[in-house]
Structure formats: C-alpha cells, structure tokens
Amino acid sequence: MTETTQRRQQDGASAAQGHVGAPETRGSTSIADPVVAKIAGMAAREVPEVHHLGGGMTRAIGAVRQRVPGTGSGSGVTRGVKVEVGERQAAVDLDVVVEYGAAITDTAADIRNNVISAVERMTGLEVVEVNIAVGDVHLPDEPDDEGEESGGGQEGRRVT
C-alpha cells in the first residue's frame, strides 16, 4: 500500500468518526443584537468624558421604565445604543452626553476606538461603523436627573 493510499484511508476513518475539520467549522454561533448593544454601551461608558448615553427623551423614558416592574432589566446599559448585527459584521449608533470642557471630536474618537475594540474582541464581528450623536453637554453645576446612571459610575466627576 502506498503512503498516499494510507493517508486517504486514515482521512476516511477520521471522517467516519466525526472528526471533520477544525472545531470552529462544526456548527454556527449567532450573537443577538442586545449582546452587542450591552458590550458597546459598557465600552462607551468607559470613556471618562462620557457623562451619559441616550438623549434627553431617551433618558427620561428609561428612568420611568426603571421604576415600573417588569419593563426591562433596569440596568440602562443599552440606553442610547442601537445596533444592527449581521452574520459577520455589526454597526453601532450611540447617543451621548459629554462633560463640559471635553474636546468632542477627541471624545468621539475615543468612544469609537473603545467600542470597536470591545465588540470585535468579544464577539469576533467586524464593526463596520460607529455613529456617534452628541445630544447634550453636561455642565458642572447641573444636577443629574433623578434615577440616572452616570457614565462609568463616577458621580460628580469634572473634566480638568
């Protein structure tokens, strides 16, 4: 028996035993939109100049929803985050409120880099775009709306 014939027989035996290809080729993985939205929301909040995610109306509705039992997780992690997830790619839209004094273009670049890095690392999806809409600037003397979470959990923080 030649070496090539032996290899073909071994390959056939492996296939018969169910050892066909690498593990990543044996099945599929799908990632739901809310998973990507949570990852993107957390990554955006890690940027120090982000005060909140979500526009004024979104935050107001979210604060009401948190108080009504059975209307969501109450975490607000995905507030201000919209995603579209395909088989291999994802797109993210964020509504943010930044701290007064922050360079908005630099902050947007930091958010974009952080979101892309986190989503691609955790999901393996290619992030094709991160659109950022800055809807407001939080002034140092403005009180937080009752029941809102501050970006990154840093209450009373000021940009220097």
Instruction: Provide the helix percentage.
Output: 25-40%
Q: What structural class is derived from the secondary structure elements?
A: alpha+beta
Question: How confident overall, as mean pLDDT?
Answer: 79
Measured between the Cα atoms of the first and last residue, the distance is 78 Å
Oligomer: single chain
Query: From the alpha-carbon coordinates, what is the Rg to the nearest angstrom?
Result: 23 Å
What is the general shape? Answer: elongated
Unreliable stretches (pLDDT < 50, length at least 5) are 146-160
Number of helices: 4
What string, H for helix and E for strand, traces the elements in order?
Answer: HHEHEEHE
Q: Using DSSP, what is the number of strands?
A: 4
The largest pleated sheet is described as: 4 strands, mixed
Percent strand: 15-25%
In short:
This protein has 160 residues and is an alpha+beta fold. 37% of the residues lie in helices and 21% in strands.
Topology:
Blueprint: H1 3-16, H2 33-45, E1 50-53, H3 56-67, E2 81-85, E3 89-99, H4 104-123, E4 126-138
Parallel strand pairs: 3-4
Antiparallel strand pairs: 1-3, 2-3
Helix pairs in contact: 2-4
Descriptive overview:
There is one protein chain. Helices cover 37% and strands 21% of the residues. By secondary structure, the protein is of the alpha+beta class. Strands 1, 2, 3 and 4 form a 4-stranded mixed beta sheet that branches. α2 packs across α4. The longest helix is centred in the C-terminal third of the chain and has 20 residues. 28% of the residues are buried.
